[in-house]
Amino acid sequence: MNKKRLVVAFSGPSNNGKTTSIVRISNILQDKGFKVCIVKHDPKDKAMFDTPGKDSFKFTETGADVLVVGPNKTTLLKKQTSTIHEIIDLFDDFDYLLVEGLKTLDLPRISVFRNTLDEDYFKVTDAIACDDTINNDDIPSRIEKLNLNSPEDMIAWIDKNAKRV
Hints:
By secondary structure, the protein is α/β, with parallel strands linked by helices. It is built from four helices and nine strands, in the order βαβαββαββββαβ.
């Protein structure tokens, strides 16, 4: 398959619209026939993917890496972190890989802000998606400004700036 294989990351404080933006972008891209993969950073290892008492849970409790294969999905429960390259290899066949968080990764990055800017993100940010609660004059000129309420604007930026792998 001849896939786009574009990777872009999203950052920003909690409750500023990262997940909502990624969901909107993913839905639009998939409606256009593109294969989209999403990586979510879980810095506190809070995400749960299994139910205590089930066989697959018992397998993960042994400390082994577990792959659960079903008719419509495959779930990998791995006991160590993965590099972005391992994740790309795992997904392999995609048009867009959208990464939420992981701001230490060297990827083209959109930071999402509502109400207040956090300058700590500026050094890892290529574009800022914000709404009218943010004064654009407060955004450094080297950082591109995107409309948070226009996923199409963000997709256009991604198509132009995402990392091709």
